[in-house]
Amino acid sequence: MHPDRESSWTPPADAKDRPRQWRRILKLFRPYRGRLAVVGLLVGASSLVSVATPFLLKEILDVAIPRGRTGLLSLLALGMILSAVLSSVFGVLQTLISTTVGQRVMHDLRTAVYGRLQRMSLAFFTRTRTGEVQSRIANDIGGMQATVTSTATSLVSNATSVVATVVAMVALDWRLTVVSLLLLPAFVWISRRVGNERKRITTERQKQMAAMAATVTESLSVSGILLGRTMGRTDSLTGSFAGESERLVELEVRSNMAGRWRMAVITIVMAAMPAVIYWTAGLALQFGGPQVSLGTIVAFVSLQQGLFRPAVSLLATGVQIQTSLALFQRIFEYLDLPIDITERPRPVHLDRVKGEVRFEEVEFRYDHKGGPVLDGVDVTVPAGGSLAVVGPTGAGKSTLGYLVPRLYDVTGGRVTLDGVDVRDLDFDTLARAVGVVSQETYLFHASVAENLRFAKPGATDEELHAAARAAQIHDHIAALPDGYDTVVGERGHRFSGGEKQRLAIARTILRDPPVLILDEATSALDTRTEAAVQEAIDALSANRTTITIAHRLSTVRGADQIVVLDSGRVAERGTHEELLERDGRYAALVRRDAQLEPTG
Fold first, then answer.
1. Distance CA 177, CA 292 (A)
2. What is the predicted pLDDT for the residue at 180?
3. pLDDT, position 419
4. CA distances from 201 to 10, 174, 247, 253, 257 (A)
5. DSSP-derived 3-state class of residue 535
């Protein structure tokens, strides 16, 4: 296992361009601008109501109480109570709407990333760890939850409160306002430093979380547990996981403590400001400065206290946003992944596919630096015909088969289906036309019926049973206590290899594709199980164009045409009998099979 391995894709240079990143973040909220406008109105109304309270208090202290105006006192007190009620109601409504918007943005991001990954070529997943992909969707997007659900609203709310409060403070006494705001630039500078520091640590932390998630996914799968225990590596894997977890502990502590002392200084200074205001007003009164009424001082301190909470929150929000930029950047990296296999702007749709497949001077390379995996392959499979592709390991057999359903795209030449380049066909036509049964059968952790219906969601029970009978697996399923409702287990581990293979064949029969790719579908099975699976394959292959990639030559002797690949090129072609007569590479492979057969 390789916990330090990352995807080979690197983000483009402009992924770190902050203005562009901000534009992309704001674009996420564009579909919900109507709701956000309502939130803005509620924030403004809440701020105005909150600012009104100190002015009501000033009138109580300077007018209502000194002059004994009981009626005015009652009205002002009632106004203060009403202000608190309105502020609370506006706050609840604001939270409801902003949280809903934030969760919708989270949903959009998750869906966009998942949809992007669904469109990636097979090559991307062969070089990227599953845990890394899962971490981007779960941890990175989950880590942004606070930002998109509450931080944005908090930013607007606190900024509005700060502006309204400062305006009110200036209206009361501009000189005291200047004293109160002298240190504000220093506070902003400190918060920006803290934000940048946390952003760097957050990037490291998310990478470590992705590495740990990948280790968990690999080592705690059924296959991983079997490998770890049979190799006696349980303690070693536990120690490795503990080491990664220890590194994550360190990063979490650093992330939470980054700038804590600096932010604590800001909190202390702002909490001490009321004392500074009392001291300043007292000195001014003692040394003949401008007179300030008691009501004005109390109202000003009340405003200042009201300023304290949103100002500190605003600085903390700035830090949170800086931290979240690292998460957004990781998500945008996946959204910017280049898609190798795309649909044409105006793709060809075939309502009925006959099944003729042609490989015309096909060339394929995994990358520009490596040599060709396939080079000049030219083969025709007529509709309803059968082609067997054989050859040594690494000859390019599976790659050739995967070009038909466009799991890869050719880098030279073309592959056609009924005379149409598969790159010109729409994805729906290809999905309906080409079925693949591979050696590595994948079954979901769901019931047998749900796994079969993945191929045809609307299939009836009778159709399921018919497909299972054709695949020689119905009797076994029916004998299970829960029948077709039996849960197959993680990756189908409740079933044997042959049973899983027959379930996969039944699933493909249910889909009924006119073209079938069999990628070494029986190579991992024993001779007896292979015979049962081969019967199912024969039923599946009837009246279909079949391309069989085979390791065991006993399964391909009846093919209409056999092609021998060697180093990506066609070395021989012909029927079984013709190739044996030539006594070339195919005949050598047959003799090798005959020698291996007694050992099973």
1. 13
2. 67
3. 92
4. 20, 41, 12, 10, 11
5. helix
DSSP 149: I
How far CA 283 is from CA of 278, 289, 302, 303, in Å, comes to 9, 8, 20, 21
Name beta bridge partners: 569. Answer: 566
Backbone angles phi, psi at 266, to 5 degrees: -60, -45
Give the residue carrying structure tokens 């009246």: 543
Contact 15, 336 (CB under 8 A): yes
Asked whether 293 and 55 are in contact (CB, 8 A), the reply is no
Q: 421: helix, coil or strand?
A: strand
Amino acid identity, residue 466? A
pLDDT of residue 533: 66
**b/e map 81-103, b = 16+ CB within 10 Å:** eebeebbeebeeebbebbeebbe
If 0-12 CB within 10 Å is exposed, 13-18 middle and 19+ buried, where does residue 434 land? buried
Sequence-separated (6 or more) residues with CB below 8 Å from residue 490:
221, 222, 445
Residue with tokens 């894709």: 9
Which pLDDT score is estimated for 294?
Answer: 67
pLDDT, averaged in runs of 10, over the chain (600 residues): 39 53 81 84 80 78 81 86 86 82 84 82 74 72 69 68 76 72 66 67 72 69 58 71 78 70 66 70 66 69 68 64 73 82 89 92 83 90 92 87 90 93 92 84 83 88 89 87 84 75 85 87 62 71 85 80 91 91 88 64
Report which residue type is found at 474: H
Domains of the chain: 17-336 (1.20.1560.10), 357-444+517-596 (3.40.50.300)
What distance in Å separates the CA atoms of residue 391 and residue 344, rounded to the nearest whole number? 34
CB atoms within 10 A of CB 456: 16
Output the pLDDT for position 387: 92
| Tokens representing residue 242 in the block | 């503990």
- Cα 336 to chain center, whole Å? 12
Q: Any idea what DSSP says for residue 372? A: P
Give the pLDDT score at 359. 95
pTM here is 0.64
Q: Do 135 and 206 meet the contact criterion of CB atoms below 8 Å apart?
A: yes
pLDDT of residue 403: 93
Q: In this predicted structure, what is the pLDDT of residue 570?
A: 92
Angle of helix 461-470 relative to helix 527-541, nearest 10 degrees, comes to 120
Per-residue pLDDT, 553 = 79
Q: How far apart are CA 451 and CA 473, in angstroms?
A: 14
Q: Is the dihedral of CA 443, 447, 449, 454 positive or negative?
A: negative
Query: What distance, in Å, lies between the first and last C-alpha atoms of the chain?
Result: 31
Question: What is the C-alpha to C-alpha distance for residues 452 and 510, in angstroms, rounded to an integer?
Answer: 8
Give, as one character, the DSSP assignment of residue 445.
S
**Angle 152-172/294-335 helices, nearest 10 degrees?**
160
Sign of the CA dihedral 351, 353, 354, 357? positive
